[in-house]
């Protein structure tokens, strides 16, 4: 293995790095075989990654491993710390009576993983939003007992978005603890999946971004951040294109509210773009492209932008070199790679 030469002026903390328990993947296999989960996006995603192609087999092996192999990949690329999170869709695709206890077991296992390499790994708390009260309690347990640094929300819950007020206990708990929620993509909900799947566009190529951007925008327009004004949401892939849409979102949302055209759209305390700049933090997972990164830095500010590597789905040592070569002053690179993650996720002593 060749270890590339990287700057030592900052740590590289990778913030969207996937992990899965073997038990959860075995349950996925059984559910796929029985046909009891009918979500076409789940069947498309995990029907492939639990298949027999070389890419699928490599992913399935790497995603459950968090020891020498993962650390070797980190060392090769100059990544110092990974924040591990249970991969999409986590337990959110399962029945509530299965999902709630399984989520507790998964978090306990992930705690043991982190404890084996505490200088290299941190973790986010998985939840089962099917039971919002239990999910809120698991957020508190993850924060207070397990030492986890945030919450992983793998987007929609069996076709339901969390802008409905029944899910408010989740946001209430996260805000009270000042622990961020990482809104990770899922495949498009069953009602919208078919045109994506038939074109082969349901996953990371495009469907993930559409689905997650929609979820985040629904949280904003439903007033979640008016109810929980200090809530922090982290979103990958440079914001699933929403920073690019800021001006138009403000213009069209304001027009729609004034027209009273939609029962769901009520006045907000601030323009949509204010929430995108104040409550949302952006990571670069899967977007190692200078022009896009520069744009997001310009419109949201360096304090809301963080490095991520998207291991093991999309990762390569040369991608880290791409981020290292951003033409920024050292203070911006240090914030991007290290300081922002330490502040938002409360890392360190």
How does this structure look, described?
- The protein has 349 residues and is an alpha/beta fold.
- It is 50% helix and 9% strand.
- It is built from 16 helices and nine strands.
- The chain has helices spanning 22-34, 40-49, 54-63, 68-77, 96-116, 132-144, 168-177, 190-198, 207-221, 224-227, 237-240, 246-259, 272-278, 290-300, 317-324, 330-344, and strands at residues 13-19, 81-86, 121-123, 125-126, 151-153, 181-183, 233-235, 280-283, 305-306.
- The protein has a six-stranded parallel beta sheet with strand order 4-5-6-7-8-9. Strands 1-2-3 form a three-stranded parallel beta sheet.
- It starts with 12 loop residues before the first strand and ends in a 5-residue tail after the last helix.
Number of strand segments:
9
Instruction: Give a quick account of the main beta sheet: strands, pairing sense, barrel closure.
Output: 6 strands, parallel
Strand content: 5-15%
Span between N and C termini? 32 Å
Give the tags.
alpha/beta; about 350 residues; three-stranded parallel β-sheet; six-stranded parallel β-sheet
Topology, element by element:
Blueprint: E1 13-19, H1 22-34, H2 40-49, H3 54-63, H4 68-77, E2 81-86, H5 96-116, E3 121-123, E4 125-126, H6 132-144, E5 151-153, H7 168-177, E6 181-183, H8 190-198, H9 207-221, H10 224-227, E7 233-235, H11 237-240, H12 246-259, H13 272-278, E8 280-283, H14 290-300, E9 305-306, H15 317-324, H16 330-344
Parallel strand pairs: 1-2, 2-3, 4-5, 5-6, 6-7, 7-8, 8-9
Helix pairs in contact: 4-15, 6-7
């Amino acid at each position: 293995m060749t270890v590339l030469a990287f700057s030592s002026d900052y740590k590289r903390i990778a913030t969207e790095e996937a992990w899965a328990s073997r038990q959860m993947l075995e349950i996925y296999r059984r559910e796929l075989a029985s046909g009891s989960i009918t979500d076409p996006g789940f069947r498309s995603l995990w029907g492939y990654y639990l298949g027999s192609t070389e890419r699928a087999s490599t992913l399935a092996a790497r995603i459950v491993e968090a020891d020498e192999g993962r650390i070797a990949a980190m060392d090769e690329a100059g990544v110092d710390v990974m924040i591990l999170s249970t991969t999409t869709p986590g337990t959110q695709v399962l029945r509530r009576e299965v999902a709630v206890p399984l989520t507790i077991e998964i978090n306990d296992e992930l705690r043991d993983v982190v404890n084996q390499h505490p200088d290299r790994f941190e973790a986010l708390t998985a939840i089962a939003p099917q039971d919002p009260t239990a999910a809120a309690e698991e957020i508190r347990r993850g924060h207070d007992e397990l030492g986890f640094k945030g919450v992983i929300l793998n987007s929609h819950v069996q076709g339901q978005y969390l802008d409905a007020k029944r899910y408010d206990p989740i946001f209430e708990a996260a805000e009270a603890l000042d622990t961020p929620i990482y809104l990770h993509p899922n495949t498009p909900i069953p009602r919208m999946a078919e045109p994506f799947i038939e074109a082969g566009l349901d996953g990371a190529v495009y469907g993930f971004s559409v689905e997650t951007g929609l979820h985040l925008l629904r949280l904003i327009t439903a007033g979640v951040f008016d109810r929980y004004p200090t809530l922090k949401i982290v979103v990958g892939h440079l914001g699933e294109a929403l920073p690019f849409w800021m001006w138009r979102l403000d213009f069209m949302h304001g027009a729609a509210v004034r027209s009273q055209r939609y029962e769901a759209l009520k006045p907000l305390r601030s323009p949509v773009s204010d929430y995108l700049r104040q409550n949302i933090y952006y990571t670069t997972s899967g977007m190692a492209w200078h022009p896009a990164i520069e744009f997001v830095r310009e419109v949201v500010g360096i304090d809301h932008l963080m490095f991520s590597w998207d291991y093991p789905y999309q990762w390569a040592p040369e991608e880290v070199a791409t981020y290292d070569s951003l033409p920024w002053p050292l203070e911006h690179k240090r914030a991007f790679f290290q300081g922002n993650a330490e502040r938002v996720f409360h890392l360190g002593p």
